[in-house]
Amino acid sequence: MASLNVGNLGEFLREQRRTAQLSLRQLADAAGVSNPYLSQIERGLRKPSAEILQQLAKALRISAETLYVQAGILDERHGPDEIGVQTSILTDPSLNERQKQVLLQIYESFRKENGFVGGGDSTANGHEDGRGTDSHDAEADGGPHAT
């Protein structure tokens, strides 16, 4: 799994904001987040969700994938099809964070099973609940948590 690189993300966001000639307040308003929250992201004190990254990307007029790579959510070595699937999962507002992580793990395990290894287990940021990569087997096999 890729680790979330919040410090580099903040520096990258600040640089993109300055390049776009936006103040912190202007970007916060455009992205629909508070000034203090955006400031904390830029200083590396907060790690934004995929949805917040998507809002920031839209406000900055850059691709959400670029921010996902900077945040360590996606590995830049992934192919375009894989990034599209992962982006769809990460930005789906109807899924909670746990469901997104499980779907990404299932997707990656199927790709590995079929011989398409896109850069390791770097499809998503790690689990804080300590579960291993085999924890999705029940869901993948239509077990009690399948939806």
What does this structure look like?
This protein is mainly alpha-helical and 147 residues long. It has helices at 6-19, 24-31, 35-42, 50-60, 64-71, 80-90, 97-113, 137-140. Helix 2 (24-31) crosses helix 4 and helix 4 crosses helix 5. The longest helix has 17 residues, at 97-113. It is elongated, with a radius of gyration of 16 Å. The relative contact order is 0.14. Mean pLDDT is 75; it is low at 1-5 and 119-147.
Brief summary of the model shown:
This protein has 147 residues and is mainly alpha-helical.
List keywords for this structure.
single chain, 147 residues, mainly alpha, disordered N terminus
Question: What ranges have pLDDT less than 50 throughout 5 or more consecutive residues?
Answer: 1-5, 119-147
Rg, please?
Answer: 16 Å
- The termini sit apart by 24 Å
List SSEs in N-to-C order.
Answer: HHHHHHHH
- Overall 3D geometry? elongated
Characterize the largest beta sheet: strand count, sense, and whether it forms a barrel.
none
Mean pLDDT across all amino acids: 75
Helix content: 55-70%
Q: What is the beta-strand fraction?
A: under 5%
Instruction: Give me the number of helical elements.
Output: 8
Structural class designation: mainly alpha
Number of beta-strand segments: 0
